[in-house]
Write a sequence for this structure.
């Protein structure tokens, strides 16, 4: 896939922050990227630590709650996701409703509850992580330095 193709897909949401999810080894027919449903759940990382996630693509992808935060998405905004798959790149949009916001507050509370976990709890969460049927996207990287001409222009708009 050429970089021009990726940029062309993202151009329709120019001026908005975009969460980019690269799913190497997956084609577009494996990910229900057109499904507009979004909900919040707690899932474990492979090490057993719990993480609050938003579920995308029909529950196929668990994305850390930090991603929308870093993309400056708030209540009644749209989360723009650029899916980069092996066969194509596509843009999906997810609406941040009151219900989603409330659900995210609950799952954040669950993530933070009862820390640190006991060894038995960690092992139980590790087992759940090993049996998970979703793709976990738990790490977030901000690709723009704090002061760039693009950021300055976007914040001035």
């Amino acid at each position: 896939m050429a970089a021009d193709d990726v940029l062309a897909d993202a151009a329709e949401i120019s001026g908005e922050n975009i969460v980019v999810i690269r799913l190497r080894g997956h084609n577009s027919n494996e990910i229900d990227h057109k499904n507009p449903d979004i909900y919040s759940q707690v899932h474990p990382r492979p090490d057993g630590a719990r993480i609050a996630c938003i579920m995308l693509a029909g529950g196929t992808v668990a994305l850390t709650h930090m991603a929308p935060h870093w993309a400056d998405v708030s209540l009644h905004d749209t989360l723009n996701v650029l899916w980069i798959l092996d066969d194509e790149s596509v843009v999906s949009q997810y609406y941040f409703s009151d219900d989603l916001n409330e659900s995210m507050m609950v799952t954040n509370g669950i993530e933070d509850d009862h820390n640190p976990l006991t060894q038995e709890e960690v092992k139980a969460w590790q087992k759940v992580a090993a049996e998970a049927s979703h793709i976990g996207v738990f790490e977030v990287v901000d690709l723009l330095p704090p002061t760039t001409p693009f950021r300055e222009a976007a914040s001035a708009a």
